[in-house]
Amino acid sequence: KMTQQMRDLQLAQARKPPGPSSPNAAKRLYRNLSGKFRVNYTSFDEGSLVGRSEKEKLRKSFLIQSNAALFEAVELQDLDRVQELLKQYSPEELDLNTPNSEGLLPLDIAIMTNNAPIAKALLQAGAKESPHFVSLESRSLHLSTLVREAEQRVNELTAQVVNEAPNADCSEKEKQLKAWEWRYRLYKRMKAGFEHARVPDPPTNVHLSVASSSSVHVTFWEPLSVNSAVVTKYKVEWSCSPTFSPPLGEAVIDKLKNLHFTIRGLMSGTAYYVQVSAYNMKGWGPPQSSVPPFAIPSNWREYDGRAPRRRGQAEALDQLLSQVKTVHQHCVCHEPCKNQPQSRKHSVSKSLKHLFHPGSKFLKTLKRGLYLTAVFYKDDNILVTHEDQIPVVEIDDTYSCLLMQDFLWFTKVSCMWDEILWLRQCVTVSQSSCSCVLQTRFKMLLATSQMQGLLGIQDLGQVFFEPIKDKQGNILIVTLKEVKTNQTFESVRWVPICKLQTSRKSVSSPEEPTALDTLLVTVQDKLAYHRRSSHALSPGLYLGYLKLCSAVDQIRVLVPERLPNILCHVKIRSNPNISREEWEWLQKMVSMDEPVPTEPEADTSQNYLFQELQVAIKELMTLVNIPLQEAKDFRLYSQEVLDFGGQVSFLLLLPPSDDVCTAPGQNNPYTPRSGFLTLPLQIFELGKRR
C-alpha cells in the first residue's frame, strides 16, 4: 500500500520513538524537558567528566525528545508549550519539517485539526506541509489508512484485555489500549476536519500601489472565511491583460508574517493588473483582483523630467573642500605642520585616563567668559574628570556676549571635527586683519583642539541647539555624544547622572544658578533631545507643516520634541512613492481657482491619495492646534516632493504667504499644543544631514 511504503521510507529518518503516545506520556515528556533532563545536560556542558562522545549522544537524544515533545504539544493542542519550544530551539534543532513515523509533520496535524493559533505559530517559525500529499486523494487515503489501522489495533487490544486474566501483562496492555484509543480519536478528528474543509475564500482588501518607476506593491488581508482550514500560503499573479491571459508572472508567499509583495522589473508607463489567491489543504481558492484594478509604474519626476535636486551635491562639496585644501597646502600657515603627524599621533594615542592627569586644563569653576563643555554618556552614566566635573575648557575669558552667527558657525564646524587642526592653521594667517570675528572663531578652534587633546578623541559629538547663559556673564557651549561601546578605561569613572546631580555642591543660589549648575539640572533633558534627534522615520509618505518665526539675528522653525530633526508631520501612507498620475492630479488641484477640488474618480490611485490627504490634514491641524476651517487657506507645496533617502518622502503644507514666517513682535494666533520647540533654521538643517 502507498501509505505503508511512505511509512517504511520515513522510519529510516524518524526522529520520534516508535509506538503510540498518550496524554500522560506527553506530560511526562514535558516534565523531562523542562526539569531534570535539561539540568543534567547543562551540568555536563559545564565540566562533567563524561567524554565528548557521550555529550554528543546526550545532545542528540535531547533533540530527539524535543522533536517528540513538539509533536505531542501539537496533538494535545497545547499552544503555550508549542510557543515555548519554538522560542527555545531553532527549526533545525526541532526537525520542524521532518515527518514522524506516521508520515505527518506538526503543521499537518495543526491544520487538519483546524487549530489556527498553533498553525500560525508554526508557519511563522518556517513550518511546511508534508510534501507527500501531492493530491487531495493521497491525503484522504493516508488519513483513512491511519484511522483504519488505529481502529484495528484498538479492537485487538480490547479482545486481549477482555480474554486474559488480570496480571502484569494485562495491566500494560490496558495502558496501550488507552493510548491507541486516544490516537484513534485524534485520527478520526483529523479525517473529519479534512473532509469538512473547503478551499478558502479570496483574500480581502487587496490594494495595489505604485512603488517606483519599475515596480508596484500589493498588500492584502486574510480571507473573511478560511472554511475550516488554515491558509498556509498565498499566490500573487500579474498580467498586462485584465483577463490574465497571458499571465506575466506569479509569486507564492509562504512567509505569512507580513502580507505584502513588491513586483519588480516592470516597464515604466505600462499598466499591470494584479490578483491574489489563498491556499489551504483543499487547494487554491478563487483569486481576488486588486483595487485599483491596475497600476502604472512611474514617479512624480517623470511629470516634467526633473532630476533629483541633491544628485551629485555631496560629491561636489567633497571636491570643493579638496580644492580648498590644495590651495592652502603650501601656504605659510602649514610650515609649522611638518611634524604634525607625529604630534597628532601622540594626541590620538591618549586615552580617557588623561582626564585625571593632574596637569590637565579642565576648569573647576567658571568666570565671566565663553566656555566649551563635552558631555559623554553611556546609558544613564556620564563621564567626569577626577574632580567629579563635566569636562570644561575656556574659549575666551573676555567674551561675554556670544553672537548667534559665531555660534551657528561653530555648529557647522562640528561636522568637521577631524579637520580642526587644519582649520585652525588656516585661520591663523588671517589674524593679521585684526578681525574680532576671526579672533573669536580662532579661539573656538583652539579650545576644541584642547578638548580633543585632553580627551584623546576627535569626535566631540553634536552641538546642543542653544548655549547656556547665566547672570554672571558665563556662556557655555555644550556638545553631546553617546558612547555605545563596552570598552572600559583605566582610572576613568562613569558616574550615574543622578548621583552626580545630588552630590555636586552648588556655589550659586537657586535664583541665579551658574551655567554649570544649569547644565547639571537640565542634563537629562539635553540627553533626551540628543537621543531623539538621531531617530529616523519609518518608510512612508508624510505630510509636513512648515512654520517659521524670525528674530533679529535668526530664523527658527517649529519641530516636535519627540523628533526634533523632522518638521511637524503626520503619516499619509506607508508607500513613499508619488506616481506620475498622482502628481499630475496634485498639480491640477493646486492650480485650481476654486479652493475645494473636485473629487477624482473612484478606484483610482488619485482618489486614494485624495482620501489619505483629507485624513492627514485633519490630523495635522489637530496636532498643531489650528482650527480646521483655517486649513482652507493653507497650500500644498507643489514644486517638488521632498525625498529623504528613497524611503521617506514629504508633501509640505504651508500657511498663507503672510503667515509662513511670524515676524518679531507679531503674535501667532494659533499656539501649538505642548510637545513642540523652535530650532534655529541652521541647526535644523544640520540635523537633517546627520
Automatic annotation (TrEMBL):
SMART domains: FN3. Gene3D superfamilies: Ankyrin repeat-containing domain, Immunoglobulins. Pfam families: fn3 (PF00041). GO terms for cellular component: spindle. It comes from the Eukaryota. GO terms for biological process: establishment of mitotic spindle orientation; regulation of establishment of bipolar cell polarity. SUPFAM superfamilies: Ankyrin repeat, Fibronectin type III. InterPro entries: ANKFN1, Ankyrin_rpt-contain_sf, FN3_dom, FN3_sf, Ig-like_fold. Residues 1-25 are annotated as: Disordered. Residues 202-299 form the Fibronectin type-III domain. PANTHER family: ANKYRIN REPEAT AND FIBRONECTIN TYPE-III DOMAIN-CONTAINING PROTEIN 1-LIKE, WIDE AWAKE. This is ANKF1 protein. The gene is Ankfn1.
